[in-house]
Design brief:
It is built from twelve helices and five strands. By secondary structure, it is an alpha+beta fold. The protein is globular, with a radius of gyration of 21 Å.
């Protein structure tokens, strides 16, 4: 661990960011040009004292979980993220495996979306980050580990994954999941995480095996979705996907037509989401 280089790197990256870059209010009487230490600490979930000691080259070695939080909070690119890990004496994550680092360009767009569901997915349908309204709509999809990180894997192994879609859409959604996995498999090859998913699903799901044998290849996101929520029932939403330059991640934005029934239901879910958040905060 190179404490002095790490400290210098953190100070420099913090100084290059403004509150609006990370969806924080600018406020008044700011004494620093960049983010405050307390703001970085809040964004990462660490204590101000812990982060201060890192910047003063006297902190303990950060865990990989802490480094991932720092990389996201400081809006690091993948190369910058890997550099952060190495300065901290940790091995950089393998990019061919499960890479949970959100690309800054997509994160910046997501930061500005608070009135409509939005989430960022990997090529294997791992939910890397989601806004509050997407969490209310889909549940927390970032809390899974192992194979279950992949929404494709859960679709064929966990019946709860299908509850958000009407039964009549299950066959189409299953086909779309397999076609997307075929694309990821073609890119990653036989030693990739996609290949491991194929191997495991072939042993578990007859439905998957049948669809995989059809060799359908397609990266697509349905432009219109009908979803089911236990509080408000069916919601018809339009889906737009913004892909990263290397197409390794996709930002999905779900919107409702103005003054539609779906728009009213999204507004209600936003209220429900704020109530859940306020209750959670009060109980902390």
């Amino acid at each position: 661990m190179d404490r002095h280089q790490l400290a210098d790197f953190l100070r420099h990256r913090r100084a290059t960011l403004r509150p609006e870059d990370v969806s924080l209010p600018a406020g008044v009487r700011r004494r620093v040009e960049g983010l405050r230490r307390v703001e970085v600490a809040d964004l990462t979930g660490m204590s101000v004292d812990y982060y201060t000691r890192l910047e003063q080259a006297r902190g303990p070695q950060p865990s990989t979980q802490m480094l991932a939080a720092l990389a996201r909070a400081l809006r690091l690119t993948r190369d910058e993220r890997d550099h952060l890990y190495r300065l901290s004496g940790q091995a950089a994550p393998e990019r061919a495996g499960l890479d949970t680092h959100v690309l800054p360009a997509l994160q910046r767009v997501l930061d500005r979306l608070d009135d409509t569901p939005a989430l960022i997915l990997s090529t294997l349908a791992d939910t890397l980050v989601q806004n509050r309204l997407a969490t209310v709509l889909f549940g927390d999809q970032t809390a899974f580990s192992g194979m279950q990180r992949s929404g494709i894997y859960r679709w064929f192994t966990d019946p709860r994954e299908r509850q958000v879609y009407p039964a009549e859409d299950h066959a189409r959604q299953a086909r779309a999941n397999v076609a997307s996995l075929r694309v990821a498999y073609g890119i990653g090859g036989t030693n990739s995480r996609a290949a491991r998913l194929v191997h495991e699903l072939s042993k578990i799901s007859r439905e998957f095996t049948t669809l995989w044998a059809e060799h359908e290849v397609s990266s697509r996101f349905e432009d219109h979705k009908v979803l089911v929520h236990p509080e408000v029932g069916l919601i018809e939403l339009d889906c737009q996907a913004l892909l990263s330059e290397d197409q390794s991640q996709a930002l999905l934005v779900l919107t409702a037509a103005p003054r539609s029934e779906a728009a009213e239901k999204l507004a209600l879910l936003q209220v429900i989401g704020h109530q859940q958040f306020d209750t959670h905060t009060a109980n902390r």
